[in-house]
């Protein structure tokens, strides 16, 4: 298994250049690049060609562009905007060598019937799949463990990607989101591990199911998520690709970027190493 870093973990105390510098120094294998803020900021004074050169000359590689936000159940104008955005993202991902584009389902206060959510998700993902296919970029759908998210459990998300039935469409499995809306281990045990493209590792304070928010996340192994059963199940179903640490903890943004990135690595390795062999540099 390889070690990845999601830039949300240093959202308020770093930028893409610093994240790349420290992740390279600390032995990470991959980085998930935030497109809405950190990549946009980077491109104000740098070019994609510079980013390509960095990846060509360093160990760390781009895992994913994160994220295509609220892709489903949009009106006509919203759908067109999603398609245009995805076309831009897939071209950028292909150019820098990123394997995936993370796609996030709609979060809304509006009540939408589950069959309408599934229908929209399947149709849009099949369309995105066809656009992405010539670029050799895959789509990783991330279910969101909040009540207002239209796709908020593992079972719901897995059913959608099974119905889409495209080789280049799979899931992000985020431990926080799995826990936050009470997704079931039995559903994970029945899944095909090859349909999970990215593993997000994190933990959370012990608040009740249904009221957890991203800022409740804590270092892996420091919270209430049953990471042992989750990780042993993921291994049993054949997942062994990349574990990417993703936190949104306000207190961690008060640390230096290097300290955040190092602690994220150290805590992740301690949890993961019980189940997987990671060959990350031990700094």
TrEMBL record:
It comes from the Bacteria. It is an enzyme of class 5 (isomerase). One of its GO terms (molecular function) is isomerase activity. Its EC number is 5.3.99.11. Keywords: Isomerase. Transmembrane segments: none annotated. It holds the Pfam family AP_endonuc_2. InterPro entries: IolE/XylAMocC-like (IPR050312), Xyl_isomerase-like_sf (IPR036237), Xyl_isomerase-like_TIM-brl (IPR013022). Residues 21-261 form the Xylose isomerase-like TIM barrel domain. The keyword Ligase does not apply. This is 2-keto-myo-inositol isomerase. It comes from Heyndrickxia ginsengihumi. The gene is iolI.
């Amino acid at each position: 298994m390889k070690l990845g870093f999601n830039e949300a973990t240093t959202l308020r105390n770093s930028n893409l250049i610093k994240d790349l510098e420290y992740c390279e120094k600390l032995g990470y294998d991959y980085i998930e690049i935030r497109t809405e803020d950190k990549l946009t900021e980077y491109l104000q004074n740098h070019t994609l060609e510079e980013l390509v050169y960095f990846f060509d000359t360093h160990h760390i590689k781009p895992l994913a562009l994160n994220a295509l936000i609220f892709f489903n159940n949009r009106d006509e104008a919203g759908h067109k905007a999603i398609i245009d955005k995805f076309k831009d993202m897939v071209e950028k991902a292909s150019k820098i060598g990123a394997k995936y584009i993370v796609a996030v389902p709609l979060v809304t206060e509006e009540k939408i019937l589950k069959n309408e959510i599934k229908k929209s998700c399947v149709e849009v993902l099949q369309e995105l799949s066809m656009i992405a296919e010539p670029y050799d970029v895959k789509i990783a759908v991330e279910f969101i463990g909040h009540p207002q998210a239209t796709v908020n459990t593992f079972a719901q998300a897995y059913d959608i990607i099974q119905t889409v039935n495209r080789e280049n469409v799979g899931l992000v499995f985020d431990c926080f989101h799995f826990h936050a809306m009470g997704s079931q281990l039995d559903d994970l045990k029945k899944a095909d591990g090859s349909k999970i493209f990215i593993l997000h590792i994190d933990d959370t304070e012990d608040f009740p199911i249904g009221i957890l928010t991203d800022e409740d996340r804590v270092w892996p192994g420091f919270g209430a998520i049953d990471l042992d059963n989750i990780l042993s199940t993921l291994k049993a179903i054949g997942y062994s690709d990349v574990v990417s640490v993703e936190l949104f903890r306000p207190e961690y943004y008060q640390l230096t970027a290097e300290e955040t990135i190092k602690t994220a690595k150290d805590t992740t390795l301690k949890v993961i190493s019980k189940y997987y062999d990671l060959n990350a540099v031990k700094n």
